[in-house]
Write a structure and sequence with these properties.
By secondary structure, the chain is mainly α. The chain is built from eight helices and no strands. It has two domains: about 30 residues; about 120 residues, Orthogonal Bundle (Globin-like). Helix 3 packs across helix 4, helix 3 packs across helix 6 and helix 6 packs antiparallel against helix 7. The longest helix is centred in the N-terminal third of the chain and has 28 residues. It binds protoporphyrin IX containing FE (HEM).
């Protein structure tokens, strides 16, 4: 009886484990191990960084008023998705482009610098390698013209 049960369940168990290996491989294969996403430590590291980053941002009176009417739970989720995609993560960014997302905020250079400074301090505090911090900050700087709604390079 015990043997019969084992024979009945074996094919199911095999199918399930094969399927989970295939799905796991699919997700893993989408991440380039050399990507910034992989090098910073993947989704968990990005989640921790974004949480700490918004703690700092919301405690800073130079910029926190921008978020007065923003649902921060949603904002934090979006920022995690955006950063993951920008660093080469497995899922694409499906939200607004950076120009559209910020076009009504009338942001200045100083606002951008404060935000960039908090992100940099967050990454340093989380003990990210100096070189990685530099690479991420270069990437963030590349969004500046869009975030500040300035004409992009080449279109001036
Ligand atoms: C430093 C580069 C920045 C990046 C990468 C960034 C990224 C984002 C992302 C991904 C969103 C969500 C877009 C969506 O709804 O689909 C967003 C929205 C927003 N960002 Fe930024 N942002 C940056 C700079 C700033 C700055 C400098 C400020 C203000 C100090 C700011 C304030 C906001 C606000 C208030 C929203 C919410 C807009 C809304 O829901 O109506 N961002 N940002």
């Amino acid at each position: 009886m015990k043997n019969k049960l084992l024979f009945c369940l074996l094919p199911f168990a095999l199918t399930i484990s094969l399927l989970s290996v295939a799905v796991g491989d699919d997700v893993r294969n989408k991440v380039d191990p050399k990507s910034l996403y992989a090098r910073v430590g993947g989704q968990e590291a990005i989640n921790a960084a974004v949480d700490l980053f918004y703690e700092k941002l919301l405690a800073d009176e130079r910029v926190n008023f921008f978020f007065d009417d923003v649902n921060m739970k949603v904002q934090i989720r979006k920022q995690k998705e955006f950063l993951s995609a920008a660093l080469g993560g497995p899922e694409p960014w499906t939200g607004k482009d950076m120009r559209k997302a910020h076009e009504n905020l009338d942001l200045r250079e100083e606002d951008f610098s404060v935000v960039a400074e908090h992100l940099q301090n967050t990454l340093v505090e989380l003990k990210l390698d100096h070189k990685l911090v530099e690479e991420i900050m270069t990437l963030v700087a590349s969004t500046k013209d869009d975030v500040l709604n300035k004409p992009s390079e080449g279109k001036k």
